From TrEMBL:
Annotated ranges, domain Sialidase: 47-347
Protein name: Exo-alpha-sialidase
Superkingdom in the source lineage: Bacteria
Organism (species): Enterocloster alcoholdehydrogenati
PANTHER family: BNR/ASP-BOX REPEAT FAMILY PROTEIN, BNR_ASP-BOX REPEAT FAMILY PROTEIN
Stretches assigned to coiled coil: none
């Protein structure tokens, strides 16, 4: 398939070829909304891609709702987004997409009450809802509140483990003086395809959120988390299909208290998309907001997420570098990373300080390097058993 060459990238969804980066890129149509944030993707059985995000005036306001754009298979442009949700009393945020056993696309998202006087953060009122599409994301049915416990937040889609178990990462928000500093991680587990759920907690996980679960080998899971101290991406392990978890420990990857996305690739490597920045002076137990959310990098691990020797910047923003210039870059944040059935990697994130959503398509070797792949330095079987 032939794509036009950069320069280009207008907000019409057209996919362009970036010769310098070796990638395909697009700016998704905005639908006329002033802000866009927290994208998520899914691949449908026919090869089409869906991308959803939350759009409206300002995060936390009642006009924020979920929208969805489609990249039909063998097409070269994303469609104008259609509305999924629209509760006039709640801010609907952090969507994820899951292709269910009922052959419907499930859009799971949070719904929190509108802002109130004196309350900047209403996440402690959030519930988790689900809406479904049976026509590939073109139209959506009414919502069902799946998790009505207030304060429940989510980001990663439902993960299906090799034994058929479903696991859905949450963190639990409270109305406390510490605000967002102490949110702990918990998981919803279902052994009957979502008919019933139970919750397990991660010990000493306060301030560790946005858990991304990957199954390293049957029953052996790793969860990678955003750190409220803006220090490092943290990692926890489970060896019993998610029943119990270890205390989170820092990885080598910096974290700026912004969302991350982790996935196990077909090669066996773990890939994480993130902003490679952090606060220089983290305070234990205190949330920090450095604000610097550029560049967007993808890091590869060959030992289940303990080390990440291979890192590439996939988004360089406006290109400013150095301490004096780094804040001149706009924000490129909240990446979502997935791998298609054909092995291609798909990355989306909020771009140009939430002006819209950017999409990038590339190969694992675009991060890894063709030479390293060809000489076979990685044995995935050995790496997974370390």
């Amino acid at each position: 398939m032939t794509y036009p060459k950069l320069p280009g990238l207008t907000w019409d969804g057209t996919i362009y070829e970036n010769d310098e980066m070796g990638t395909l890129e697009a700016l998704l149509p905005t639908g006329g909304y002033p802000t866009a944030h927290a994208p998520a993707m899914a691949e449908l059985p026919d090869g089409s891609l869906l991308c959803c995000w939350f759009a409206g005036t300002y995060e936390g306001s009642a006009d924020i709702h979920i929208v969805c754009s489609i990249l039909p298979k063998d097409k070269t442009a994303w469609t104008e987004p259609v509305n999924i949700s629209g509760d006039p009393q709640r801010s609907e945020q952090n969507p994820s997409l899951f292709y269910g056993p009922d052959h419907a696309v499930w859009a799971m998202y949070t719904a929190q009450l509108d802002r109130q006087a004196g309350k900047d953060n209403m996440q402690y009122t959030a519930v988790v809802r689900c809406q479904k599409s049976t026509d590939g994301g073109r139209t959506w049915g009414p919502y069902e509140t799946v998790f009505p416990e207030e304060g429940t937040f989510c980001r990663q889609p439902i993960q299906v483990l090799s034994n058929g178990r479903w696991i859905f990462s949450n963190w639990l928000c409270t109305d406390s003086e510490e605000g967002l500093s102490g949110d702990p991680t918990a998981f919803r587990i279902s052994d009957d395809e979502g008919k019933t759920w139970r919750m397990v907690h991660m010990p000493k996980s306060n301030g560790h959120v946005h858990a991304n679960v990957v199954e390293l080998e049957p029953g052996h899971l790793a969860a990678f988390m955003r750190n409220r101290e803006a220090y490092r991406i943290h990692r926890s392990e489970s060896f019993d299909w998610g029943e119990t978890w270890s205390v989170p420990q820092p990885t080598p990857l910096p974290n700026n208290n912004s969302s991350i996305s982790a996935v196990k690739l077909q090669s066996g490597r773990v890939a994480i998309a993130y902003n490679p920045t952090c606060t220089p002076d983290p305070k234990p137990g205190k949330a920090a907001w450095p604000g610097l959310r550029c560049p967007v990098a993808v890091a590869l691990s060959e030992d289940g997420g303990l080390t990440f020797p291979i890192i590439r910047w996939m988004e360089r923003g406006e290109g400013f570098v150095g301490e004096e210039n780094k804040t001149n870059n706009r924000q490129y944040e909240y990446p979502y990373l997935m791998q298609g059935k054909d092995g291609m990697l798909h990355l989306t994130y909020a771009a140009r300080t939430r002006q819209g959503i950017k999409y990038i398509r590339f190969k694992e070797t675009d991060v890894l390097g063709e030479k390293r792949e060809k000489i076979g330095l990685y044995n995935p079987t050995a790496a997974q058993t370390r």
